[in-house]
From TrEMBL:
The gene is ackA. It comes from Asanoa ishikariensis. It catalyses: acetate + ATP = acetyl phosphate + ADP. Transmembrane segments: none annotated. This is Acetate kinase. Its main location: cytoplasm. Its cofactor is Mg(2+); Mn(2+).
Length: 408
């Protein structure tokens, strides 16, 4: 039995999970969650609340705390405090390792890495490529290192799964020398999620992952699509940074780069403001004033036109990527929805794939709307493409990858 603490430090949240992993575990095994908790920016969310049967025994679930830095007196003000509070609550006896989600691994990291000073420096070097994410990830590693001296720390990168992209898929069509000098490249993100979800999709269909072509749609606060050919990422919608691709809670996703020049020249916006606009005030929040899909759907149901348009833009973007990746893959076996929106919003799943029946892509309304939670198929039994919902488990994937490094 190994005990692994997994930390996912986001820009405004800290999530942790403690797993007991039996010897000889397989990636498809359910994680033995001993404890979990979150400090998050959104007090309304409850999707991290453990299902009672899943958590055995519950040592602690510290629950949801309001925004780090804006919370009630006594609540954690930063990652160091949040982590110290979490660690004070849980039993870390016999801890084998700590696994950290690190969003940007650049081209440096093609696999998870045992943290040492050189790895920390390399992660810090990548901050300019992921200014929203890597600083928080780094803070988490530094705090865990100082609180748990002697316990191996492993960095697991969102980008690593996408290092199988071909040059044609990862190259931006700009001046080659400039791109080379400044690391302009499609790195891709959410790799641990696309990896575990594509494998679990193959398992759900009862087929070896090597034989299955899947489009995985990770729709959370951040959102990305991935074309997975036989278990390998061959295309993904996020690029140099997690800003490209699908419409997200607060990020624009794809846009004409000339919009940036236009805002700078004509509106006189400094680049820092455009950066903030596209990363934090765009996407659903920019179009309809809310970043939470639950709230957006509720507003849309009351006839709110901005919410209706935001929903259409969001779903249309997904459909366009499905079409593009279907063309890239040539043969498509499955489309899988995952993460907060993908797992819980049947309206999004139905609208995103509407009108694709000529491509063999059909969502069965009753299956789609059934209040199930586990991995499931929501297309009709005889459909050429299996449309699936598969809960993601980035933390479990990080735990197993972490053990892989420590055991090696
Ligand atoms: N029942 C639900 N219906 C629609 N959307 C939901 C539901 N539950 C969660 N969500 C959406 O999922 C989003 C968070 O997804 P999640 O994968 O947990 O995000 P993160 O990227 O922070 O890990 C929330 O912003 C919310 O919009
Ligand atoms: C990379 C990324 O977008 O991560 P998140 O979905 O956690 O914001
Ligand atoms: Mg996420």
């Amino acid at each position: 039995m190994s005990r692994v603490l997994v930390l996912n430090c986001g820009s405004s949240s800290l999530k942790y999970r403690l797993f007991d992993v039996p010897a000889g575990h397989g990636w498809n095994a359910a994680g033995g969650v001993v404890a979990r908790g979150a400090a998050d920016s959104d007090p309304a969310r409850d999707d991290e609340a453990p299902a009672a049967a899943e958590v055995e025994p519950v040592v602690v679930a510290s629950g949801v705390v309001e925004r780090i830095g804006e919370s009630e007196p006594g609540a954690p003000q930063n990652h160091a405090e949040a982590l110290a509070a979490a660690m004070a609550e849980i039993s870390l006896d016999g801890l084998t390792a700590v696994g950290h989600r690190v969003v940007h691994g650049g081209l440096t990291f093609t696999a998870p890495a045992l943290v040492d000073d050189a790895v920390l420096a390399a992660i810090a070097d990548l901050v300019p490529l992921a200014p929203l994410h890597n600083p928080a990830n780094l803070a988490g590693i530094q705090v865990a290192r100082s609180l748990l001296p002697g316990v191996p720390q492993v960095a697991v990168f969102d980008t690593a799964f996408h290092r199988t992209l071909s040059p044609a898929a990862s190259t931006y069509a700009i001046d080659a020398e400039t791109a080379e000098r400044y690391g302009i490249h499609r790195y891709g993100f959410h790799g641990t999620s696309h990896a575990i979800v594509s494998r679990r999709t193959a398992a759900l269909l009862g087929r070896p992952v090597e034989e299955v072509n899947t489009i995985t749609l990770h729709l959370g606060n951040g959102a990305s699509a991935c074309a997975v050919e036989g278990g390998r990422s061959v295309g993904t919608s996020m690029g140099l940074s997690p800003l490209e691709g699908l419409v997200m809670g607060t990020r624009s996703g794809d846009l004409d780069p000339a919009i940036i020049f236009h805002l700078h020249r004509v509106a006189g916006m400094p680049l820092s403001e455009i950066d903030e606009l596209l990363n934090r005030r765009s996407g659903l929040v920019g179009l309809a004033g809310v970043n939470d899909m639950r709230v957006l759907l509720a507003k849309r149901a009351t006839g709110d036109r901005a919410a209706a348009l935001a929903f259409e833009v969001y779903c249309r973007r997904i459909r366009s990527y499905v079409g593009a990746y279907y063309a890239d893959l040539g043969r498509l076996d499955a489309i899988t929805f995952t993460a907060g929106v993908g797992e819980n919003a049947p309206a999004v799943r139905a609208a995103a794939l509407a009108g694709l029946d000529r491509l063999g892509i059909v969502v069965d309304p009753a299956r789609n709307e059934a209040p199930e939670r586990g991995a499931r198929v929501i297309s009709p039994p005889d459909a050429p493409v299996a449309v699936c919902v598969v809960p993601t488990d980035e933390e479990w994937e990080i735990a197993t990858q972490t053990l892989g490094v420590v055991a090696a």
